[in-house]
Amino acid sequence: MESYALLLGAMLSAGTVLAIAALGLLINEKAGIVNLGAEGMMLCAAIGGFAAYVHTHNAWIGFAAGMAVGALLAGLFGVLVIWLNTNQYATGLALSLFGVGFSAFVGINYVQAKAPGGMAFAIPVLGDIPFIGPALFRHHPLVYFAVALTFALIWFLYRTRAGLVLRSVGESPESAHALGYPVRRIRLMAVMAGGALCGLAGAYLSVVYTGLWVENMVAGRGWIALALTTFATWRPLRVLLGAYLFGGVTQLGFHLQSVGVDVPSQFLAMMPYVATIVVLALISRNPAFIRVNMPASIGKPFYPGS
Protein backbone atom coordinates (compact mmCIF):
# COMPACT_ATOMS: atom_id res chain seq x y z
CA MET A 1 0.00 0.00 0.00
CA GLU A 2 2.83 2.37 0.81
CA SER A 3 4.26 2.01 -2.70
CA TYR A 4 0.91 2.96 -4.21
CA ALA A 5 0.70 6.01 -1.95
CA LEU A 6 4.15 7.07 -3.12
CA LEU A 7 3.09 6.52 -6.74
CA LEU A 8 0.03 8.73 -6.27
CA GLY A 9 2.16 11.39 -4.60
CA ALA A 10 4.74 11.27 -7.39
CA MET A 11 1.94 11.54 -9.97
CA LEU A 12 0.63 14.73 -8.35
CA SER A 13 4.10 16.24 -8.13
CA ALA A 14 4.98 15.39 -11.74
CA GLY A 15 1.59 16.57 -12.97
CA THR A 16 2.00 19.94 -11.27
CA VAL A 17 4.72 20.99 -13.73
CA LEU A 18 2.46 20.19 -16.66
CA ALA A 19 -0.66 21.69 -15.05
CA ILE A 20 0.83 25.11 -14.29
CA ALA A 21 2.43 25.41 -17.74
CA ALA A 22 -0.69 24.17 -19.56
CA LEU A 23 -2.95 26.58 -17.66
CA GLY A 24 -0.66 29.41 -18.74
CA LEU A 25 -0.88 28.29 -22.36
CA LEU A 26 -4.66 27.99 -21.97
CA ILE A 27 -4.83 31.70 -21.06
CA ASN A 28 -2.83 32.50 -24.20
CA GLU A 29 -5.09 30.47 -26.44
CA LYS A 30 -8.29 31.80 -24.89
CA ALA A 31 -7.03 35.21 -26.07
CA GLY A 32 -6.38 33.82 -29.57
CA ILE A 33 -2.59 33.43 -29.36
CA VAL A 34 -0.71 30.17 -29.87
CA ASN A 35 2.72 30.16 -28.22
CA LEU A 36 4.89 27.24 -29.31
CA GLY A 37 7.76 28.62 -27.26
CA ALA A 38 6.73 27.01 -23.96
CA GLU A 39 9.67 24.60 -23.98
CA GLY A 40 12.20 27.42 -24.38
CA MET A 41 10.49 29.65 -21.80
CA MET A 42 10.43 26.84 -19.26
CA LEU A 43 14.11 26.08 -19.80
CA CYS A 44 15.17 29.70 -19.39
CA ALA A 45 12.95 30.03 -16.32
CA ALA A 46 14.37 26.81 -14.90
CA ILE A 47 17.93 28.09 -15.02
CA GLY A 48 16.89 31.59 -13.95
CA GLY A 49 14.93 30.29 -10.97
CA PHE A 50 17.61 27.79 -9.99
CA ALA A 51 20.39 30.40 -10.18
CA ALA A 52 18.36 32.81 -8.02
CA TYR A 53 17.72 30.02 -5.51
CA VAL A 54 21.39 29.03 -5.35
CA HIS A 55 22.50 32.62 -4.70
CA THR A 56 19.73 33.69 -2.32
CA HIS A 57 18.86 30.36 -0.64
CA ASN A 58 15.22 31.40 -0.94
CA ALA A 59 12.99 29.18 -3.07
CA TRP A 60 10.29 31.85 -3.40
CA ILE A 61 12.79 34.28 -4.90
CA GLY A 62 13.67 31.49 -7.32
CA PHE A 63 10.01 31.12 -8.27
CA ALA A 64 9.68 34.90 -8.72
CA ALA A 65 12.80 34.94 -10.92
CA GLY A 66 11.41 32.12 -13.05
CA MET A 67 8.10 33.92 -13.48
CA ALA A 68 9.91 37.14 -14.43
CA VAL A 69 12.00 35.32 -17.05
CA GLY A 70 8.91 33.61 -18.50
CA ALA A 71 6.94 36.86 -18.61
CA LEU A 72 9.84 38.73 -20.24
CA LEU A 73 10.28 36.16 -23.00
CA ALA A 74 6.52 35.95 -23.50
CA GLY A 75 6.37 39.75 -23.71
CA LEU A 76 8.99 39.73 -26.45
CA PHE A 77 7.04 37.04 -28.27
CA GLY A 78 3.85 39.07 -27.81
CA VAL A 79 5.31 42.25 -29.29
CA LEU A 80 6.48 40.32 -32.34
CA VAL A 81 3.23 38.50 -33.06
CA ILE A 82 0.69 41.07 -31.84
CA TRP A 83 2.19 44.36 -33.01
CA LEU A 84 4.53 43.28 -35.81
CA ASN A 85 2.17 40.48 -36.94
CA THR A 86 4.89 37.88 -37.37
CA ASN A 87 3.72 34.30 -37.83
CA GLN A 88 2.74 32.92 -34.42
CA TYR A 89 3.89 29.39 -35.12
CA ALA A 90 7.29 30.32 -36.59
CA THR A 91 7.94 32.88 -33.84
CA GLY A 92 7.03 30.38 -31.14
CA LEU A 93 9.34 27.75 -32.61
CA ALA A 94 12.13 30.34 -32.78
CA LEU A 95 11.55 31.19 -29.10
CA SER A 96 11.69 27.52 -28.18
CA LEU A 97 14.96 26.99 -30.06
CA PHE A 98 16.41 30.16 -28.53
CA GLY A 99 15.48 28.98 -25.04
CA VAL A 100 17.17 25.61 -25.52
CA GLY A 101 20.45 27.18 -26.62
CA PHE A 102 20.42 30.18 -24.27
CA SER A 103 19.61 28.12 -21.17
CA ALA A 104 22.42 25.67 -22.00
CA PHE A 105 24.88 28.55 -22.38
CA VAL A 106 23.83 30.37 -19.20
CA GLY A 107 23.59 27.16 -17.18
CA ILE A 108 27.14 25.94 -17.79
CA ASN A 109 28.33 27.14 -14.38
CA TYR A 110 25.34 25.60 -12.58
CA VAL A 111 25.53 22.02 -13.85
CA GLN A 112 27.37 20.85 -10.73
CA ALA A 113 25.51 23.15 -8.35
CA LYS A 114 23.01 21.70 -5.92
CA ALA A 115 19.98 23.26 -4.28
CA PRO A 116 20.82 24.85 -0.89
CA GLY A 117 18.93 22.19 1.02
CA GLY A 118 16.22 19.58 0.83
CA MET A 119 12.67 20.80 1.34
CA ALA A 120 10.23 18.60 3.19
CA PHE A 121 6.58 19.59 3.46
CA ALA A 122 3.67 18.04 5.28
CA ILE A 123 0.31 19.35 6.45
CA PRO A 124 0.12 18.81 10.23
CA VAL A 125 -2.03 15.84 11.32
CA LEU A 126 -3.26 15.15 7.77
CA GLY A 127 0.25 14.28 6.64
CA ASP A 128 0.44 11.51 9.24
CA ILE A 129 -2.67 9.64 8.07
CA PRO A 130 -1.67 6.24 6.62
CA PHE A 131 -1.76 6.08 2.82
CA ILE A 132 -3.69 9.36 2.41
CA GLY A 133 -0.97 11.41 4.15
CA PRO A 134 1.97 10.43 1.88
CA ALA A 135 -0.26 10.51 -1.20
CA LEU A 136 -2.03 13.84 -0.73
CA PHE A 137 -0.70 15.90 2.15
CA ARG A 138 3.09 15.89 1.92
CA HIS A 139 3.61 18.09 -1.10
CA HIS A 140 5.14 21.46 -1.82
CA PRO A 141 2.60 24.33 -1.62
CA LEU A 142 2.79 24.80 -5.41
CA VAL A 143 1.12 21.41 -5.85
CA TYR A 144 -1.94 22.77 -4.05
CA PHE A 145 -1.51 26.10 -5.83
CA ALA A 146 -2.01 24.33 -9.17
CA VAL A 147 -5.38 23.01 -7.98
CA ALA A 148 -6.41 26.41 -6.61
CA LEU A 149 -5.26 28.10 -9.82
CA THR A 150 -7.46 25.79 -11.87
CA PHE A 151 -10.62 26.72 -10.01
CA ALA A 152 -9.63 30.39 -9.89
CA LEU A 153 -9.20 30.34 -13.66
CA ILE A 154 -12.61 28.69 -14.12
CA TRP A 155 -14.17 31.44 -12.02
CA PHE A 156 -12.26 34.16 -13.87
CA LEU A 157 -13.07 32.94 -17.38
CA TYR A 158 -16.74 32.11 -16.86
CA ARG A 159 -17.89 34.28 -13.95
CA THR A 160 -16.21 37.65 -14.41
CA ARG A 161 -16.51 40.47 -16.91
CA ALA A 162 -12.73 40.47 -17.48
CA GLY A 163 -12.85 36.78 -18.34
CA LEU A 164 -15.71 37.38 -20.76
CA VAL A 165 -13.70 40.13 -22.46
CA LEU A 166 -10.66 37.84 -22.70
CA ARG A 167 -12.72 35.10 -24.31
CA SER A 168 -14.36 37.56 -26.68
CA VAL A 169 -10.91 38.69 -27.84
CA GLY A 170 -10.11 35.07 -28.66
CA GLU A 171 -13.45 34.46 -30.38
CA SER A 172 -13.87 37.67 -32.38
CA PRO A 173 -11.20 40.35 -31.91
CA GLU A 174 -12.89 42.54 -34.54
CA SER A 175 -16.10 42.64 -32.51
CA ALA A 176 -14.21 43.32 -29.28
CA HIS A 177 -12.32 46.14 -31.01
CA ALA A 178 -15.57 47.60 -32.33
CA LEU A 179 -16.88 47.71 -28.76
CA GLY A 180 -13.84 49.73 -27.73
CA TYR A 181 -11.69 47.07 -26.05
CA PRO A 182 -7.89 47.35 -26.56
CA VAL A 183 -7.47 43.95 -28.20
CA ARG A 184 -3.71 44.15 -28.61
CA ARG A 185 -3.06 45.14 -25.00
CA ILE A 186 -5.42 42.45 -23.72
CA ARG A 187 -3.65 39.84 -25.83
CA LEU A 188 -0.23 41.02 -24.62
CA MET A 189 -1.32 40.83 -20.97
CA ALA A 190 -2.71 37.32 -21.56
CA VAL A 191 0.52 36.22 -23.26
CA MET A 192 2.67 37.60 -20.44
CA ALA A 193 0.44 36.01 -17.77
CA GLY A 194 0.74 32.69 -19.58
CA GLY A 195 4.51 33.15 -19.87
CA ALA A 196 4.78 33.85 -16.14
CA LEU A 197 2.97 30.58 -15.39
CA CYS A 198 5.24 28.67 -17.79
CA GLY A 199 8.16 30.32 -16.00
CA LEU A 200 6.79 29.22 -12.63
CA ALA A 201 6.49 25.66 -13.93
CA GLY A 202 10.10 25.73 -15.13
CA ALA A 203 11.35 27.13 -11.81
CA TYR A 204 9.36 24.51 -9.87
CA LEU A 205 11.00 21.83 -11.99
CA SER A 206 14.56 22.90 -11.15
CA VAL A 207 14.09 24.25 -7.63
CA VAL A 208 11.72 21.67 -6.13
CA TYR A 209 11.05 18.70 -8.38
CA THR A 210 14.67 17.86 -9.22
CA GLY A 211 16.66 20.27 -7.06
CA LEU A 212 19.36 20.71 -9.70
CA TRP A 213 20.07 22.09 -13.15
CA VAL A 214 20.71 19.83 -16.14
CA GLU A 215 20.84 20.97 -19.74
CA ASN A 216 17.51 20.47 -21.54
CA MET A 217 15.95 19.23 -18.29
CA VAL A 218 12.41 20.24 -19.32
CA ALA A 219 12.66 17.27 -21.70
CA GLY A 220 9.58 17.94 -23.81
CA ARG A 221 7.23 18.92 -20.99
CA GLY A 222 6.54 22.22 -22.74
CA TRP A 223 5.27 20.37 -25.81
CA ILE A 224 3.17 18.03 -23.69
CA ALA A 225 1.65 21.05 -21.89
CA LEU A 226 0.83 22.54 -25.29
CA ALA A 227 -0.87 19.31 -26.35
CA LEU A 228 -2.78 19.24 -23.07
CA THR A 229 -4.74 22.37 -23.98
CA THR A 230 -6.12 20.60 -27.06
CA PHE A 231 -6.59 17.35 -25.17
CA ALA A 232 -8.62 19.28 -22.57
CA THR A 233 -10.59 21.14 -25.28
CA TRP A 234 -9.57 24.43 -23.67
CA ARG A 235 -11.22 23.74 -20.30
CA PRO A 236 -9.16 24.34 -17.11
CA LEU A 237 -10.45 21.39 -15.06
CA ARG A 238 -9.72 18.98 -17.89
CA VAL A 239 -6.23 20.49 -18.16
CA LEU A 240 -5.61 19.65 -14.50
CA LEU A 241 -6.92 16.10 -14.82
CA GLY A 242 -4.96 15.58 -18.04
CA ALA A 243 -1.78 16.84 -16.36
CA TYR A 244 -2.20 14.29 -13.58
CA LEU A 245 -2.88 11.58 -16.17
CA PHE A 246 0.36 12.35 -18.00
CA GLY A 247 2.17 12.70 -14.68
CA GLY A 248 0.96 9.22 -13.79
CA VAL A 249 2.16 7.83 -17.11
CA THR A 250 5.58 9.37 -16.45
CA GLN A 251 5.84 7.81 -12.99
CA LEU A 252 4.24 4.44 -13.72
CA GLY A 253 7.36 2.97 -15.31
CA PHE A 254 9.50 3.90 -12.33
CA HIS A 255 6.91 2.33 -10.03
CA LEU A 256 7.00 -0.88 -12.05
CA GLN A 257 10.77 -0.97 -11.75
CA SER A 258 10.58 -0.44 -7.98
CA VAL A 259 8.31 -3.48 -7.57
CA GLY A 260 10.60 -5.69 -9.63
CA VAL A 261 9.15 -5.41 -13.14
CA ASP A 262 11.97 -5.07 -15.66
CA VAL A 263 11.13 -2.11 -17.91
CA PRO A 264 13.73 -0.84 -20.42
CA SER A 265 14.79 2.75 -19.74
CA GLN A 266 14.15 3.66 -23.38
CA PHE A 267 10.54 2.59 -22.97
CA LEU A 268 10.20 4.75 -19.86
CA ALA A 269 11.54 7.77 -21.73
CA MET A 270 9.09 7.39 -24.61
CA MET A 271 5.93 6.62 -22.59
CA PRO A 272 4.72 10.24 -22.05
CA TYR A 273 5.14 11.09 -25.74
CA VAL A 274 3.42 7.91 -26.91
CA ALA A 275 0.54 8.73 -24.57
CA THR A 276 0.39 12.26 -26.02
CA ILE A 277 0.21 10.97 -29.59
CA VAL A 278 -2.43 8.36 -28.72
CA VAL A 279 -4.63 10.87 -26.90
CA LEU A 280 -4.39 13.49 -29.66
CA ALA A 281 -5.16 10.83 -32.27
CA LEU A 282 -8.25 9.76 -30.34
CA ILE A 283 -9.68 13.24 -29.86
CA SER A 284 -8.89 14.13 -33.48
CA ARG A 285 -11.42 11.53 -34.55
CA ASN A 286 -14.13 14.07 -33.66
CA PRO A 287 -12.99 17.36 -35.23
CA ALA A 288 -16.45 18.91 -34.85
CA PHE A 289 -16.19 18.62 -31.06
CA ILE A 290 -12.79 20.35 -31.14
CA ARG A 291 -14.08 23.16 -33.36
CA VAL A 292 -17.02 23.83 -31.04
CA ASN A 293 -14.73 24.33 -28.03
CA MET A 294 -11.75 25.93 -29.78
CA PRO A 295 -11.47 29.76 -29.69
CA ALA A 296 -12.59 30.86 -33.17
CA SER A 297 -9.69 33.26 -33.81
CA ILE A 298 -6.90 31.17 -32.31
CA GLY A 299 -3.66 31.63 -34.24
CA LYS A 300 -5.10 34.34 -36.45
CA PRO A 301 -3.50 37.82 -36.59
CA PHE A 302 -5.55 40.89 -35.82
CA TYR A 303 -5.31 44.08 -37.84
CA PRO A 304 -7.14 46.90 -36.00
CA GLY A 305 -7.12 49.15 -39.05
CA SER A 306 -8.94 46.66 -41.27
UniProtKB/TrEMBL annotation:
Protein's cellular compartments: Cell membrane
Pfam families noted in UniProt: BPD_transp_2 (PF02653)
InterPro entries: ABC_transp_permease
Keyword hit for rRNA-binding: no
Molecular-function annotations in GO: transmembrane transporter activity
Entry GO CC: plasma membrane
Keywords attached to this entry: Cell membrane, Membrane, Transmembrane, Transmembrane helix
Recorded topology in the membrane: Multi-pass membrane protein
Protein's UniProt keywords contain Membrane: yes
Transmembrane segments: 7-27, 33-53, 60-83, 89-111, 142-158, 188-212, 218-234, 241-261, 267-284
Primary location recorded for the protein, binned into one broad class: membrane
Protein name per UniProt: Nucleoside ABC transporter membrane protein
Organism: Pseudacidovorax intermedius
Lineage: Bacteria, Pseudomonadati, Pseudomonadota, Betaproteobacteria, Burkholderiales
